[in-house]
Design goal:
The structure is a homodimer. The first copy, chain A, is of the alpha+beta class. Helices cover 30% and strands 21% of the residues of chain A. In chain A, a hairpin with a 3-residue loop joins strand 14 and strand 15. Chains A, B: Homodimer.
C-alpha cells in the first residue's frame, strides 16, 4: 500500500474569535512595540509593588506588567496577590530586564477576581508533586503541569494527525460492553439496579434482565475486538478512548482509567504491524518535540533538578531532549522472546542471582526487571519482543507453527521503552476459524457469546494485525515525569476518584 | 484575542508503510495505465463469471477486476462469492465500462478468505436499516455505513483541528466520577462490589468504603465541571469523550452512551461563546463537505431515495448538500427565550391549538414541537436561543439581573438545528461565589461535596463560558441519517448492549 494524504484539499483556517485581550503567548513573540494591548490572566508574583508576573495559561512563560504604583490606588495594589485574576491595559514595550523580550507598561490595572493570599494553596515556591496531586484541581496552574498537559495535548493531536494522513478511520468502540475482550482482567460492573435490594430470580441470583441493558455489563478493557470488525470493512481503523482495569495495583505505572490507542489493519502481517507502531511512536514524539520546544525544555530542567537528589549512578545518562531524539534516530531492536530468554539466561544479573525472578526455562512471562535489563542495559534502546509462548498470551493471537523443539508461540509483539516498560502490546490476529475456535475452547471462552467476532473469520477472513498504545505511558515517557498520576488530569486509582 | 496557528512549524508527513497491494481509493484516481498492481479486498458482486467488483473499505466505490475466466481454474471461480476476500494481480487499464475510469485486467486471482453465499447475511441487494442494525458488526461493509462512518471520522478530526488551530488544550476529563455535574440526570453506577452479597454497614446500608474507589461512583454525564478547572489554568480547553445517561428514552435521538465535545473558555462572555460555537459547527461541516464529497453525494442520493416513500409535503425542501451549504452560508438566528415565547404564542399552530403543549405563559420549557416550529417554519435556519428562565436551567449558569417584570433568567444558549433539535447546549457560567452558593442551596446541591469546583470562584474567578455539542447529533445532521443508532458503531440503548 502506498499511503497518501487525501485531506490536503481542505485549506481553510478556523475563523478567529475577536476578544478584547491578546493571549500572552502571542504577546511574548510580538514586536509591535508601542502598541496598546490588553492582558487578562492570573498573578504569579508581584514584586516591589511594581512588577506583576501574569500568566494566562497560553504559555508556560509569564508576561511582566510594570505598574505605575504612585498613580495606582492603594486598594488595587493590595489586591494584586498570587492567584488573583487581573486585567492590565498598557503599552507593549521592549523589556530591559533579563529573561524576557517584552513587557507591558501598565496604564490601567483592575482586579477581575481576588485571591486571598492566606488561603490560596499555590504559593510562589516549589511544591512537591505529592502535594500538588492532593490539589489536582489547581495544579494545572503551575509551570510543570502546564508543560505536561500541553505535551499531552500535542501527543493526542499528533496521534489523530498520523492516522488521518494514513487514511485510517477513527472508530468509537463502545465503553459499556457485555463482553470481556481479553478473556481476562478484572472489570468494573455498570448497572442501574438498586444495589441495596436488587431484583432476584427464583434461584436467588441477581436478575440482570431488569438491569438497564437487560444483561450484566462492564466497562471495556479494550476496543480491539470491535476494532477488528471495523478493519474487516474499512481496512484500517484506530480507536482512541478510555479503557478500564479494576486491578488493585498501586504503582507509578498503573491507572484504573486510562486512554488507549488501538489501530487494527486488514492485510497487515506482524512485520507491517511493527513498522506501523514504530512509525507512529516516532511521529508523535517528533511532533511534541517540534511544537512544544519550550515545554519540553522546561521539563528537561525539571527532571535534571529532580535527579540531583539521586545518587549519581541512578541518574539518566541522557537528558530528556537527548532521550527523545535518541528514540527518533534509532531503529527499535526486534528480538524474539526465545532469543531474549537466551540473552537473559546468560546475563550478569541472572548469573549472579540478582534478578528477583531468575530465568531458568523457556516459557515464563518476563518481569519488569527483565524487560528493563534488555532495554536499558543490553540493547540500550526501545526493543520489540516478538513470538511469545502461546500459553502466556491472549487467545486471539495468530499461532506460529511449533518450533523444532515443539514449542508453541504466537505472533505477538510488545514494545518496551526505557524507564516505562511495555508501551505497546500487539499481535497478528488468528484469522483461521478452526484454530481460533480450538484455542477459545482450550482457554474456556464460550464461542456462543462471540458469534459476532467469529463472523469476521467466517466471511472473507484475511490476515490482520493491530496493537494498543497506553497513552499515559507515552505521555510519561515524553514528559520525563515519573508517576503516571501526574500525566492524566484526574487519576483514578484504588480508593481514589476525587474531583 | 487574536488566535493563531502555532503548529505550522510541524511539516513532517507520516512515513508510508510499504505493502504489496495498493488501496482501491488510490487506484481509482490513478492514471498509470499498463502498470502492474495488486488489489486486496472483498467481493461485492461477481457477474458473468468475469467481472468482480472489489471493495477494500478505502472508498465507497469498488474497483472492477476483469477475470480471464477461460484460464482461471473452475474451483477458484466458484469461490469468488459476495463477501469473500480476494487478491487480484493484474494490469491497471482504462475502463471501457461506464461509471468507472479504471479497472484491473487480472492475471492472477486467489482467494484469501471464503464466504459461504448461503450463510453470508449481506447480499448484493438493498437491506433495510433496521435489518442492518441487527448485524451492526457487518453493516460497515455496506456503502451507506462506509459513507456514514467516513463522515463521522472527518467530523471528529475537524473538531480537533479547529481547536488546535485556536490553541485550545485537549483535556481528558474523568469518565468514572463521584460527582453529578448537572446536579440531575439518571446515572450508571460503577462498582466492583459483589452485587449478590455486597458488604453492608451496621445499619444495613451498602458499605461503599469497600468498593474499588472507597466510595460510590458513576459514569460521567458531562466533563464540564472538570473542564472549568482547566479553563481557569489554560484559558481555553476542550474535551471530546464519551458521556452517559441512564434515561429510559427509546427515541431516534437518544443514546445511553454518546460522545460529547465540551469547550470551556476563560474570559469568554455569552456572545463570545455563541461566536465560537457557530464557528466550530460551520468549520467541521465545511471540512466534511470538502474532504468527503463522494460520501456526502452518496448520502444525498440515499436520502432522496428514502424520502420518495414519504408524502410530498413531508419531504425536505433542500437536499443534503443544499442543507449543509445553507448552514455554512447563513448566520444563526440569535433570539432570547422571551422573544421566542412571543413568537410561539402568536404562531398559527398555537392559535389553532395544533401544538400538543400550548404556549400560554412565560416560564415553561420548550418542547421539541416548539423548537421545530422556530427553526423549520419561522426562521428556517439554525437558531440560538438565549436567556432562558432560571428555574428550568442548571445551577451553574450565570444569572441575569431580573427583568422589568421581575423575571429571572440565566445566560444560557441552546443551538437548535433543523430536523435535530438541540445540537448545542451552553452558557456563561456564574463566576460569583455568593450567587453560586445561594443557587446551589436553593436547588439542594451540597456545597461540601463541591469544594474543588467552588475553589475556581474563590481564587482568581473570571467570567467564563462553555458549551457541549452532542457529537452523534452533529453526525446525524451532516449525514442526513434519521436514526441516531445508525451513526455510532455500536449503539447502547435501553435493553441493548450488543457486540
Amino acid at each position: 500500500m502506498y499511503c497518501f494524504f487525501n485531506k490536503a484539499s481542505f485549506t481553510s483556517h478556523s475563523p478567529k474569535i475577536k476578544m478584547e485581550h491578546t493571549r500572552i503567548k502571542e504577546l511574548l513573540n510580538a514586536t509591535e512595540f508601542g502598541k496598546e494591548v490588553v492582558v487578562k490572566g492570573w498573578v504569579r508574583t508581584f514584586r516591589n509593588n511594581q512588577f506583576i508576573a501574569i500568566n494566562d495559561g497560553s504559555s508556560i512563560n509569564n508576561i511582566q506588567a510594570v505598574v505605575d504604583f504612585e498613580n495606582t490606588p492603594e486598594d488595587i495594589l493590595k489586591r494584586i496577590t498570587t492567584g488573583a485574576a487581573v486585567r492590565v491595559k498598557g503599552q507593549l514595550i521592549e523589556s530591559l530586564g533579563k529573561g524576557q523580550k517584552v513587557e507591558v507598561k501598565a496604564t490601567e490595572v483592575s482586579i477581575i477576581g481576588d485571591s486571598d493570599p492566606e488561603k490560596y494553596p499555590l504559593q510562589p515556591k516549589k511544591h512537591s508533586l505529592e502535594f500538588l496531586r492532593e490539589i489536582a484541581h489547581l495544579r494545572f496552574r503551575t509551570g510543570t503541569f502546564n508543560a505536561v498537559f500541553k505535551v499531552r495535548n500535542a501527543l493526542a493531536f499528533a496521534v489523530h494527525k498520523f492516522f488521518q494522513e494514513n487514511d485510517f478511520v477513527y472508530m468509537h468502540t463502545p465503553i459499556i460492553t457485555g463482553s470481556d475482550a481479553e478473556g481476562a482482567g478484572e472489570m468494573f460492573q455498570v448497572t442501574t439496579l438498586n444495589l441495596s435490594n436488587p431484583p432476584r430470580k427464583e434461584n436467588g441470583e441477581i436478575d440482570f434482565k431488569e438491569d438497564f441493558f437487560g444483561k450484566s455489563t462492564n466497562l471495556t478493557v479494550s476496543g480491539q475486538l470491535e476494532g477488528e470488525l471495523g478493519a474487516m470493512a474499512f481496512g484500517n481503523i484506530y480507536t482512541f478512548g478510555p479503557t478500564f482495569r479494576a486491578e488493585n495495583s498501586n504503582t507509578t505505572r498503573h491507572l484504573a482509567e486510562f486512554w488507549m490507542i488501538e489501530p487494527e489493519m486488514a492485510f497487515y502481517e506482524l512485520e507491517d504491524n511493527m513498522d506501523l507502531a514504530e512509525a507512529l511512536l516516532k511521529y508523535v514524539i517528533k511532533y511534541a518535540l517540534e511544537t512544544c520546544p519550550e515545554e519540553i525544555e522546561f521539563l528537561k530542567s525539571r527532571l535534571l533538578e529532580e535527579e540531583k537528589s539521586k545518587p549519581a549512578a541512578e541518574r539518566s545518562e541522557l537528558n530528556l531532549v537527548e532521550k527523545l531524539n535518541f528514540v527518533l534516530e534509532n531503529n527499535f531492536e526486534r528480538v524474539t522472546y526465545t532469543d531474549a530468554v537466551e540473552i537473559l539466561k546468560r546475563s550478569k544479573p541472572n548469573q549472579k542471582k540478582q534478578f528477583k525472578y531468575l530465568i531458568d526455562d523457556w516459557g515464563a512471562d518476563l518481569q519488569s526487571e527483565h524487560e528493563r535489563y534488555l532495554v536499558e542495559k543490553h540493547f540500550k534502546k526501545p526493543v520489540i519482543l516478538t513470538d511469545y509462548p502461546r500459553e502466556i498470551k491472549s487467545f486471539y493471537m495468530k499461532q506460529n507453527e511449533p518450533d523444532a523443539q515443539g514449542r508453541n508461540t504466537v505472533r505477538a509483539m510488545d514494545i518496551l521503552f526505557p524507564g516505562i516498560g511495555e508501551m505497546v502490546g500487539g499481535s497478528q490476529r488468528e484469522e483461521n476459524l478452526d484454530r481460533l475456535l480450538a484455542r477459545m475452547a482450550e482457554v474456556g471462552i464460550p464461542a456462543e457469546e462471540m458469534e459476532w467476532f467469529l463472523d469476521t473469520r467466517r466471511f472473507g477472513s484475511v490476515p490482520h494485525s493491530g496493537f494498543g498504545v497506553g497513552f499515559e505511558r507515552l505521555v510519561l515517557f515524553t514528559t520525563g515525569m515519573t508517576n503516571i498520576r501526574d500525566v492524566i488530569p484526574f487519576p483514578r486509582t484504588p480508593k481514589n476518584a476525587e474531583f
